[in-house]
Amino acid sequence: MLITHDTRCALDAVVDLVNTAPEGEATPDTLPDVPALAEFVHRHDISDVGVLSEFDLSAVRKIRGRFAGIFAASDPRIAAGLINELVAAAGTTPRLTDHDGYDWHVHYFAPGASVADHLAADCGMALAFFVVAGEQERLRRCEAPDCRRAFVDLSRNRSRRYCDSRTCGNRLHVAAYRARRKEAAG
């Protein structure tokens, strides 16, 4: 599956956005205020965004929940329905652009769109490409029982199970090793 630079940027943004949501009481919302939203926008180099407000924060949190639903969707038909709703509500206006040193790519958000509509359109379309390619199962949640962070499995054989093999994966492998050693010792 060919993933262009702008699609990859949108995938990174949507994964990061979904992962800002609290998972139960143990983890805080990491998108708590407008400055955190501004940092998110800056970190993901999201263009054409004006002055951010509490309204923008509320709208982004709403679409964050809708994106989380796409990662939780059990089949492509459900994911497609959620993506269609999200993209349609954003009022997409596809247009070719080359800006900030990037080659030609497509923006799906309308000029002057809010940051929420921008994310809904561009990230929604990035996720739509996975459904169209029959790769919706690549939109996953970490299998570590104490994690559940979202990620996109871009491995060749669709075998990635953890959001980060150096943390979640390694922690589970070490725990399993210790359990085997303890059982063998008696």
From TrEMBL:
Signal peptide: none annotated. It comes from the Bacteria. Residues 138-181 form the Zinc finger CGNR domain. InterPro entries: ABATE, ABATE_dom_sf, Znf_CGNR. This is Zinc finger CGNR domain-containing protein. It comes from Streptomyces phaeofaciens.
